[in-house]
């Protein structure tokens, strides 16, 4: 369960949680006109550190650019706001949710000519698909819903409206007793989970769907690809057919919330040995090692919440 944070960064300053409010006629509520991020802060021996903060803030601004939305703050101000949100709530680990949205009151569809509002919430959050999922794998299904087509709504933008698609996918999966659903793209090839990118391992080669307009360019996806390079493992960005899931030696999903989670079955077909595979395990080890100090952060991905 999420604990309620004491303070939220709202339009440039920290304010008490209950004061960070919008009107019921807020444009973003009616039309999905928001862009947002999910960022994790990990407890480390050197104090709380934000993971890939600059890359997440860059993606927030990229999402805004796609929608011609002007965020009335600099990237540095958002970075500082993220840190302030964590520090002011005395959190050692956190999930950060920066969101930029049209807050205008009125029912016009085109984005109103008013300053975009920005909020940053920080709260405690455990493993998204459960600790058991991280250790033993999760059961997923291929969704009856397809992911957005590239010429409908851009999946490269992390926009509020996109998450109606994700909600349909994950609600259907949970209704049928799965942990998560995986969507195909409009060509019938595998795209991504409701909130995770996907990796498939066969004969020691790692496959993942390409950045072809049908997935979010996940930062955990990128992290795993860089780990693979460091570990001399081959990664191929290729279209993946549904049956390749069933025949995989290993599958794992990646996301800021989900972290690196093995998949033990797809559509009730057991994947590999039906438990966490060796490549997923080594990726997890490298990933969580960044925060325990066992993995040297040669990429400069960690950034302290408090400047020392
Ligand atoms: N795909 C979708 C649809 C997502 O919502 C997320 C979570 N942000 C991801 C992939 C994974 O992205 P990241 O690793 O940057 O969190």
Report on this model:
This protein has about 300 residues and is α+β, with helices and mostly antiparallel strands. It has two domains: about 5-125, D-amino Acid Aminotransferase, Chain A, domain 1; about 130-290, Alpha-Beta Barrel (D-amino Acid Aminotransferase, Chain A, domain 2). About 25% of the residues lie in helices and about 25% in strands. The chain contains eight helices and 17 strands. The chain has helices spanning about 25-30, 55-65, 75-90, 130-135, 165-175, 220-230, 240-245, 280-290; strands spanning about 5-10, 15, 35, 40, 50, 95-100, 115-125, 140-145, 180-185, 190-195, 195-200, 205-210, 235, 250-255, 260-265, 270, 300-305. The strands form two sheets. Strands 8, 9, 10, 11, 12, 13, 14, 15 and 16 form a nine-stranded mixed sheet that branches. Strands 1, 2, 3, 4, 5, 6, 7 and 17 form an eight-stranded antiparallel sheet that branches. The longest helix is centred in the C-terminal third of the chain and has 15 residues, at about 280-290. It starts with 6 loop residues before the first strand and ends with a strand. The mean pLDDT is about 95. InterPro entries: Aminotrans_IV, Aminotrans_IV_CS, Aminotransferase-like, B_amino_transI, BCAT-like_C, BCAT-like_N, BCAT_family, Class-IV_PLP-Dep_Aminotrnsfr. Its cofactor is pyridoxal 5'-phosphate. Belongs to the class-IV pyridoxal-phosphate-dependent aminotransferase family.
């Amino acid at each position: 369960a999420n604990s309620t944070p004491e303070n939220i960064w709202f339009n440039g300053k920290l304010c008490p949680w209950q004061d960070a409010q919008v009107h019921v006629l807020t444009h973003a509520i009616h039309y999905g006109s928001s862009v947002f991020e999910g960022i994790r802060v990990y407890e480390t021996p050197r104090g709380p550190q934000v993971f890939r903060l600059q890359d997440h803030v860059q993606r927030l601004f990229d999402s805004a650019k796609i929608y011609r939305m002007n965020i009335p703050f600099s990237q540095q101000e958002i970075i500082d706001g993220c840190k302030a949100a964590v520090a002011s709530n005395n959190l050692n680990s956190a999930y950060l949710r920066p969101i930029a949205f049209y807050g205008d009151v009125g029912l016009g569809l085109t984005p109103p000519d008013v300053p975009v509002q920005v909020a940053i919430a920080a709260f405690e959050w455990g493993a998204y698909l459960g600790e058991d999922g991280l250790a033993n794998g999760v059961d997923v299904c291929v969704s009856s819903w397809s992911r957005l087509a590239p010429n409908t709504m851009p999946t490269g933008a992390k926009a509020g409206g996109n998450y109606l698609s994700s909600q349909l996918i994950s609600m259907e999966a949970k209704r049928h007793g799965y942990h998560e659903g995986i969507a195909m793209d409009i060509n019938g090839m595998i795209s991504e989970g409701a909130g995770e990118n996907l990796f498939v391992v066969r004969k020691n080669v790692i496959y993942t769907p390409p950045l072809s307009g049908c997935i979010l360019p996940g930062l955990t996806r990128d992290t795993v690809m860089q780990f693979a390079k460091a570990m001399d493992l081959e990664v191929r960005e290729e279209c993946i057919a549904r049956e390749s899931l069933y025949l995989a030696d290993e599958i794992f999903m990646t996301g800021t919330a989900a972290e690196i989670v093995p998949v033990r079955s797809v559509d009730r077909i057991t994947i590999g040995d039906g438990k966490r595979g060796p490549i997923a395990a080594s990726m997890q080890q490298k990933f969580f090692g960044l925060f325990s100090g066992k993995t040297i952060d040669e990429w400069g991905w960690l950034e302290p919440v408090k400047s020392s």
